[in-house]
From TrEMBL:
Residues 30-177 form the DinB-like domain. It comes from Chryseobacterium lactis. This is DinB family protein. It comes from the Bacteria. InterPro entries: DinB-like (IPR024775), DinB/YfiT-like (IPR034660).
Amino acid sequence: MDIFRLIQDIKTHLKLNFDEVDRWFEKDKNILNDQPLNKGWTVQQILEHIYLTNFYLLILIEKGTKKAMRNYKDLDLQSEIKNYSFNKEHFGRVGEYGAFEWIRPEHMEPKGELNLPEIRRLISQQYHQCLDYLDLMKNGEGLLCKTTMTVDGLGKINVYEYIYFLSLHARRHITQMKNNELETIKKLKQ
């Protein structure tokens, strides 16, 4: 496994998804605040949900990063790298909106307590946090800690995979926001 390539691929994935999420903050108020016919979340609520989910995932990522860096002293990193292969397909459905039922905890549901500029600033900080963790674990240390991920039966995943999961979660909701936007445009044309 080329661990440096994996880290770069995750950084690229993060950049693409966070850049796309950031563009949603520039949308017209009609797009941001229109409630879809299915009574789902507005785009603004989805953006808040992305922030909230990132917030809680980053708590786990931070703990995992610290543990991985501690484990570096006791585990054989080169052996872990040699025996690791990143299974992108294992995560594929996470980034697909509607691919499976996703019951999120209540604390990840938008409450409308933050305004758009605050959410945007916080999501930008979260992106930089992810990059900082990847830079800290630049030699493969992120393989040295696994934590259980119950979503879609993923099981035990390492810290790099957790960061990739966070990026896929944003991708999932980008699709949802696009669906909302198309519906809003259709409504406005009627």
